[in-house]
Design goal:
The complex is a heterodimer of chains A (167) and B (160). Helix content of chain A is 32%, strand content 31%. Chain A is built from 3 helices and 3 strands, in the order H-H-H-E-E-E. Classes of the chains: A alpha+beta (167), B mainly alpha (160).
Chain lengths: 167, 160
């Protein structure tokens, strides 16, 4: 009579195998969850950036179209002589065409100003001090016809020549 | 395979994954690191696994464990796959003896046979999955398991 084959697989399954430590469980779980959180963070950041960009874009468009509050008093502007005709900025090339003459400026600001000085020799051999000034003016107008606010950026350049004494 | 699925796979197979890593590294710390490293890599890349995802995760842990072993170069005192509790006096002496001899036999199996036994018996993988994990043909896998069982049976009941 032969002895029955031992159920080695059954015995093996019932043995006390070493189990992963709680530390390993924590490490792996933390890993998967942290990365998932990071992915969510990136998605949230992207969404916020997109929303911010959209809001800025809308605000810029809105500020160009809404009328100014009537409380803001119109300012009188004086025509300044320049050596070159005033040129609108590239972004406002169409602005003069669409702003009627009745439009009153709401605000006029000098946003950029610089000066440079050098010496030039004229054809008559006279020496001159040449003072160059560059200014960028920002003018905000209210167009009553179209009930909207228009912003103009006008660069100006002035030259002053002063004859220097010859020694 | 997204991170939720990875986490689920870990929870379901954590014991088998750890036993596989331990059977290769023969070091508790090394096994921990191998499993962690494998999951770090799996989480880092969003992979489309066309084959069996469980086998893929086991294969990743196996590769990480092999790398761990290479890094350490040698193992001073190989850790057992089983807990080394002192024999419980309430458990009959015959069973305690049997378990001890079986533990020794499993620990002393050649690496590839021990790995196959762990994956088949403890992790509960099929031969197809084990073949995919170890990168060996199905026939070879089955033959390894058969030879390992023969050795375990012959060692069964041996006196220490």
């Amino acid at each position: 009579m032969s002895t029955p084959e031992p159920d080695v697989e059954g015995f093996l399954r019932g043995m006390d195998w070493r189990a992963p430590s709680a530390d390993l469980d924590r490490r792996v779980t933390q890993l998967t969850r942290t990365q998932r959180t990071a992915w969510r963070g990136y998605a949230f950041g992207t969404a916020v950036s997109t929303l911010t960009a959209a809001l800025v874009f809308m605000a810029l468009n809105f500020s160009a179209r809404i009328p100014a509050t009537p409380a803001s008093a119109p300012m009188e502007t004086a025509q300044r002589e320049t050596s070159q005709p005033a040129r609108p900025a590239a972004s406002d090339l169409r602005a003069p065409e669409i702003v009627p003459a009745s439009a009153k400026p709401l605000r006029m600001e000098r946003v950029f100003n610089t000066g440079r000085e050098d010496r030039v020799l004229a054809e008559n051999e006279e020496q001159y001090r040449r003072i160059q000034g560059q200014t960028l003016r920002q003018i905000i107008l209210f167009d009553p016809k179209n009930q909207r606010r228009v912003e103009l950026l006008i660069p100006e350049e002035q030259y002053v020549l002063l004859r220097s004494a010859m020694y | 395979m997204n991170r939720s699925e990875l986490e689920r796979t870990y929870v379901q197979h954590r014991q088998g994954l750890y036993a596989l890593a331990l059977s290769i590294t023969r070091c508790a710390q090394g096994a921990d690191d191998a499993v962690h490293e494998a999951f770090t890599r799996l989480c880092a890349k969003a992979t489309n696994i066309e084959s069996d995802p469980v086998a893929y995760v086991f294969a990743s842990v196996r590769n990480a464990a092999v790398e761990q072993l290479r890094r350490r170069k040698f193992v001073e005192s190989p850790a057992s796959l089983f807990n080394g509790h002192a024999p419980d006096p309430r458990i009959e002496a015959e069973r305690a003896e049997r378990d001890a001899s079986l533990r020794r036999a499993v620990d002393n199996l050649p690496d590839e046979q021990r790995e196959t036994v762990v994956l088949k018996v403890y992790a509960g993988l099929t031969f197809e999955q084990i073949a995919a994990v170890s990168g060996t043909p199905l026939q070879t896998t089955a033959a390894r398991y058969r030879r390992a069982l023969e050795k375990l049976k012959s060692a069964f009941g041996e006196k220490p």
